[in-house]
Amino acid sequence: MNLDTLPLVWVLAIFAAAALVVVGASIKATHLADIIADRTRMGEAMAGGLILGGATSLAGVVVSVDAAAGGDASFAFSNAVGGIAAQTVFLALADILHKRANLEHAAAEPANLFQAVMLIILLSLPICAIAGPEIAYFGVHPASVALFLAYIAGTKLASDVSETPMWKPVQTSDTRNDEPEEDSDPSKSAMKPALVFAGLVAMMGLGGWVISQIGGSFISRFGLASSLVGSLITAVVTSLPELVTTLVAVRRGALQLAVGGIIGGNTFDTLFLVASDVAYRDGSLYHAIEGNDLYWLGTGLLMTAILLAGLILRQREGPGRIGIESVLMIGIYLTALCVEVFA
Q1: pTM across the whole model
Q2: What is the C-alpha radius of gyration for the chain, rounded to an integer number of angstroms?
Q3: Span 8-166+190-342: which CATH code?
Q4: Percent of the chain with pLDDT over 70
Q5: Is 30 helix (H, G, I), strand (E, B) or coil?
Q6: Which of 208, 285, 294, 302: CA 20 to 30 A from 324?
Q7: Is 243 in contact with 93 (CB distance < 8 Å)?
Q8: Distance of alpha carbon 167 from alpha carbon 189, whole angstroms
Q9: Of 252, 239, 253, whose CA–CA distance to 207 is shortest?
Q10: Which residues does residue 140 pair with via DSSP β-bridges, in sequence order?
């Protein structure tokens, strides 16, 4: 079906329906991820980073890969890095929801700290690729290989930190410990919730493909810049599962799952660039992007560094009962949004 020939109202209706499918599946997935974490004794932080973070990112990776395969490097790149910035600011919104204390204080967890460091490393590699020579072997830049290997190694180390931490955060009256739910039975098999979870992941992937097609239609129909559509339309829409799962997790009291889901989802999102570089057949993806795409990469890197500082500082209360890091992240994202739209 050629979306460019459809009436705009139908395109918007399909777009909204795909977004609802992705968001609805993510709500159910959050509950299942918590069950899987308890039954496998994986822990909320690791379940959030690996299981929930990867699953809710699937729609986004479908968008980036589809755009790269179609030859639009800017759309693919901006969708990936724009999603990282959007998801990080979602954590600030969750901080507002958690009234008792600063979320970064209450959700103290060594694994989340390590994953934030890992994310900064992963976001630095594309900058090195962009600044370096334009090379590609079999159409893939060496930085993509390095990024993939760094992700695998970092995930293994994050698991080690979760299982055998070498330090523990100071416990306060506002610290929420990662404890299994009272009605959770670790002796039960995780197979059934895992299968349902896989079905929900498939629905998210299908929704992501539809969103990708409509995003491309917006570019051609309205003459919009690829970076604008990627960073502010498809990136935000495909990141809505992260917003929903984060807010649901905070409501459930699964604070480590909420923080781990965002940071872990963002680390997984860096693999969008790897997959997109492979799908992009006209050379190095990193040397085919626009200046605005690099700006969003820098924005995501800056917001992640501030989040890490907040996780280390563990301010109990800040302006309006949220941490100063949340205030800064919201301000930085709004500034980036204004630059993208008006600059």
Answers
A1: 0.82
A2: 19
A3: 1.20.1420.30
A4: 87
A5: helix
A6: 294
A7: yes
A8: 31
A9: 239
A10: 137
